[in-house]
Write the structure tokens for this entry.
Amino acid sequence: MNLQRLHLDKPLFYALLMLAAVSLAVVYSAGAKDEALALAHVARLLLGFGILIAIAQVRPEILERWSPYIFGAALALLLGVLTIGVIGKGAQRWLGLGLARFQPSEVMKLALPMMLAWFLGREGLPPRLWRLGAGLAIVAIPAALIAKQPDLGTAVLVLASGLIVLFLAGTPWRLIVPLLGAIGAAAPFAWHFLHDYQKQRILTLFDPDSDPLGRGYHTIQSMIAVGSGGFYGKGWLNSSQAHLEYLPESHTDFAFAVFSEEFGLIGGLLLVALYGFVVARSFWIAYLAQDSYTRLLAGAVSLGFFLAFFVNLGMVTGILPIVGVPLPIVSYGGSSTLALMAGFGVLMSIHTHRRIVEG
Amino acid sequence: MLNIPIKDYFRETKLFNARLTVAAAVAGALILLLAVRLAYLQVVAHKHYATLSQANRIRPIPIPPVRGLILDRNGVVLAQNFPVYTLEIVPEQVDDMDTLIEELGGLVTLGEADLKAFRRLLRERPRFEQLTLRTNLSEVEAARVAVRRPYLNGVELQARLQRHYPLGGLAVHALGYVGRINESEMERIDKSAYRGMRHIGKLGVEATYEKLLLGDVGFEKVEINAHGRTLRNIERVAPVAGKNLTLNIDAKLQALAEQALGKRRGAVVAIEPRSGAVLAFAATPTYDPNPFVNGIDPEAYRKLLDDPDKPLVNRILNGQYSPGSTIKAFLGLAALELGGFDADKPVTCPGWFTLPGDRHLFRDWKKTGHGVVTLHEAIVQSCDVYFYRFAAAVGIEAMKNFLAPFGFGAKTGVDLPGESEGILPSPEWKKARGQPWYPGETVMTGIGQGPILATPLQLASAISAIANGGVRMKPRLLRSIVDAKSKVAREPEPETYPELPLRDKHHLDELIEHLTGVVHTNKGTAYGIGYNAPYKIAGKTGTAQVKGVAQGESYVEKLVPERLRDHALFISFAPVEAPQIAVAVVIENGGHGSSAAAPVARKLMDYVILGKTTAPPQPAASENNE
């Protein structure tokens, strides 16, 4: 099969297929060998790849033209969630749409960088100050809406995906440094706006043993799973932490804990390397991109993917607070997989529609 | 897009690539951080986490404790635990579930509900666990399964303890029952204390003393493999049985009381005045609590609910009745105690009373009137006009303040859940409901009619206070708490209410003399039980109107439908010199207190004081029904 003619990037596509295979193995084991669950996951992965291939066919110019509309639609969906959203897991993140339910905040992860890349790409880079200001507003509005759901993890990722574009677009360091300082100074104030459970999650990160059966429980059990896996792991389907139900959400947010317990350090490092490869290849695509819009977008998609992966692994290994961020591609979960696949579709479109063929 | 000058394009590319490099470097560093973190957790700290993971394989399996017994004061068992056979199945050992269930269906009765519950367990529980298919197998069914069991893979016959009330409905309104823990209880209870248990006290003593009866869950610590299957037992912590409770109730007296009420609807409470001990707590009709233990079937429950006699209603705690003339026992004391009314002055009773400036006639039960009556005659003959005058003279506030220390309008504090407060009305009470107080209501309160309501328990408690020299004891069912193992009994101290605030203690003796006259003088309304009594009884009859009788109309019992006939009441204690028992009797639509209610009290007194039973009580032993 000629992947190039299908507008697919061969290395990236194969790496994603490998991630999908890992995903199946983990979901099957963590989901207590539930075949129906595994089948649903396969269906979702297939759908994801379908979306990826479909988007890869669309020329970047068309994506660019449509960016503001896609962003507008995503924003409308977010507002919809806040008003008529179905309450799932205590937070309004889901929008019931007949048969399927999905999280509009996931759409925003892609729609926001597209909007910003379009907005900033209309003029030469680095952007002028007023554009930067407007860009910040474009970032802040959806992030605030998602934080209000409340979905702290996704809000931070969306916020990050927007700030990444601003950074890549060339926001001067003399603005970035004071901004980071301001964020640091504002943190204690932001603390007051967090929900109690969100505060607890951050607190327990520093001392999980303070409340081993309560807030620290997830972190401790997750670290037990990873640590007890050792060098070689316990073998596939032998995660006792997942099967004895000590690990919560073992097939979704804590999929990596199950994987590490079963495949040990070797498996864990290989998986990290695989993710590293996907991130590196995405960066390469961004590097080869030829105009502001595609560069900014490709860079944002790459870094967004990296961040999701890093935040999840950080949470599973106990170096970041527990926020509900799934492991990209590998975790069982609908909206997030589809959104990521769409992002990779965009990357492939950017890469395969270049005017000057790479030498 | 590409209309940017070439120079700018290169500058832009350079800028972007620089930024991309920074981002890639940060990403690379963070990925390295993750790799280091993984290596730390999985190599350096591996031992630590492996130990913790191993500890996660030790699973405590709860062993439910034996629930404490409930006994009467003489050791008669009122609630016990009865071994019942349950049919359980280990799904993974079964070759073909449908065939097996079909075969079992030929040995035991399998209802649609049993199958439904089992299928749910089958979906939710691991396949190596024993899942209940049927509980409460009869001996015959258990035997049939036992014979076939060697040929049935995965079938287990288990003997488990289940709550059983051997005397059926006897004292059910005091005992209550246990039932399956429901969802709202699940949220309320400490789940760790109920591990492995499915029942909780729902009503009565079973609910009040749930914590004592429950006991402590034991544990068997077992090691399990990664899939949850038991590998070996490590340690066993034995459960601690719940405390046995001895009640003040005397089962024979209780049976006597229930039989004395017979098929009538009513309530009898007997209290030992000096301690507040509840000797009998009979409300009829009763019902069998045993079907409730494992969830009564909806049809049987509906039948109980729809029964016009309302057997599920606890008439002693929640039946709120007009006290009728029994209130005169207390207002008679008020007449002596309170200013504004001269109890030494006889009153003329023409058979009716009117308030000044009002044409409404308040009639005496005796149409022709009682003539000139003293307080003694007014109580003995239950003259209404005397108390109309008294009430009109002292007013509602004074009566309310006098009756409150007797416990009217407040819970008695008995050790049972869900007690009603009755109503001790006052103008403020009516105002709070947006209604004005009518002077006529003051007058009616004088004879225990109008808005005033009391539960049988309140009446018993109030008369006990008089029997006990003005000190009211908190009524209590619990006699002692017995440790099931050491047999050490602990008797809680009786609790008392503040002494009645009497101006002159001799008034109490005088009142008791009048109350004795009710039973022992030939004009007394309860002379029917007093003329041949070998001991002295003090009491007061009452007849509470159910149907309002219009002005100018008269009440003829035979012409009134049974459900609208008057309630019969009697409150009393004996022996007068050293009271051993105080009894309140309420018989719904029973007619007159003198003829219907008083003889019931006499039977209980004979038993307690003379050790005599007019009819040998035979508590109906109920079958452990299917």
Q: What stands out?
A: The first helix of chain A runs from residue 10 to 30. Chain A touches chain B through 55 residues (CB under 8 Å). Residues 15-352 of chain A form one domain. The two ends of chain A are 22 Å apart (CA to CA).
